[in-house]
Amino acid sequence: MDETPELEKATFGAGCFWHVEAEFRRVSGVVATHAGYMGGWKDHPTYEEVCSKETGHAEVVEVVYDPARVSYDELLRIFWTIHDPTQLNRQGPDIGTNYRSVIFFHTPEQEQAARLSMEKEGGSGRYSRPIVTEIASASAFWWAEEYHQQYLEKRGGGSCNW
């Protein structure tokens, strides 16, 4: 009998990927995280290219999780709490489409859950402005450079620029 859990992926963009990755790494049931790029047209983009805002990519975190231990709905709940989804193409001082709020879905079930979650958040009364989060089908995930992986953890914690 195979005891290996069936793992799933979720991909989120919520500003600087250092902060996003650190938040999801704390979640019980998340077995791995990877900082990277998604949503653009350039293959194998570098950090410098993504920051130039000419690749179309967002900084994202790929979350590998065990759905028997943490649900996709719980990951969505966390996503909404770790950034301001009403800021268009920015988070705090980080400005540009590469810092956009985005949920990349991997399955039709994830798409449905993401849309329902966004509708619920939008009607929650938590925000004075409309939610501008993009929901899109996952495309190729490009790993960020090694120095970006678990960046804050390697430096003893901290936060991004804000």
Task: Identify the notable features of this structure and list them briefly.
six-stranded mixed β-sheet; two-stranded antiparallel ribbon; Peptide Methionine Sulfoxide Reductase, Chain A; alpha+beta; 8 strands; about 160 residues
Summarize the structure.
By secondary structure, the protein is an alpha+beta fold. It has helices at 17-25, 47-51, 72-81, 108-122, 151-154; strands at residues 8-14, 30-38, 58-65, 90-91, 94-95, 101-105, 134-137, 142-143. The chain has a single domain (8-154), classed as Peptide Methionine Sulfoxide Reductase, Chain A (2-Layer Sandwich).
Give an overview of the whole structure.
- The protein is α+β, with helices and mostly antiparallel strands and 162 residues long.
- The chain has a single domain, classed as Peptide Methionine Sulfoxide Reductase, Chain A.
- Helices cover 27% and strands 24% of the residues.
- It contains five helices and eight strands; from the N terminus they run βαβαβαβββαββα.
- Helix 3 (72-81) crosses helix 4 (108-122).
- The longest helix has 15 residues, at 108-122.
- It is globular.
**CATH arch. level architecture:** 2-Layer Sandwich
Shape field: globular
Oligomer: single chain
Find the CATH topology. Answer: Peptide Methionine Sulfoxide Reductase, Chain A
The helix/strand series, from N terminus to C terminus, equals: EHEHEHEEEHEEH
Question: Secondary-structure blueprint of this entry?
Answer:
Layout lengths: L7 E7 L2 H9 L4 E9 L8 H5 L6 E8 L6 H10 L8 E2 L2 E2 L5 E5 L2 H15 L11 E4 L4 E2 L7 H4 L8
Parallel strand pairs: 6-7
Antiparallel strand pairs: 1-3, 1-6, 2-3, 2-8, 4-5
Helix pairs in contact: 3-4
